[in-house]
Write a structure and sequence with these properties.
The protein is mainly alpha-helical. Helix content is about 75%, strand content about 0%. The protein is built from 5 helices and no strands. α2 packs antiparallel against α3, α2 runs parallel beside α4 and α3 runs antiparallel to α4.
Length: about 90
C-alpha cells in the first residue's frame, strides 16, 4: 500500500508528507504548553516548523537533482520517519 502511494512523485504525495510533518510537529509541541504564553516563544516554534519544512524541501531538491530517488517520494517519506523516530531534534533546536 505504501509502495503504491510513494512510488511516483506527485504533488499529492509531497503535500501529504508536508501535512503529516506539520501535524506531528504540532502534536509534539502541544505536550508542554508553557511556551504558549510568550510571543517570542511562539515565534520560535513557528520558525522551527518552517525550518523543518525548508529542510524537507531541500532534501527533496537534492535527491531529485542528483537522481537519487528516480522520480519517487521515498526521500521525503524517510525524512518524515526520521523526525517521527527522533523527536528530540525538535527540542535541541530550541
Amino acid at each position: 500500500m505504501i509502495t503504491s502511494v510513494f512510488k511516483k512523485s506527485t504533488p499529492l504525495n509531497f503535500s501529504l508528507v508536508v501535512f503529516l510533518i506539520l501535524f506531528f510537529d504540532f502534536i509534539y509541541q502541544m505536550q508542554d504548553l508553557a511556551w504558549s504564553h510568550s510571543a517570542i516563544s511562539i515565534a520560535k516554534k513557528v520558525g522551527i516548523g518552517l525550518l523543518i519544512l525548508f529542510s524537507a524541501l531541500l532534501t527533496n531538491f537534492i535527491s531529485k537533482r542528483n537522481g537519487l530517488s528516480k522520480d519517487s517520494a521515498y526521500t521525503v517519506l524517510f525524512f518524515l520517519l526520521f523526525f517521527l523516530f527522533f523527536p528530540v531534534f525538535l527540542t535541541i533546536l530550541m
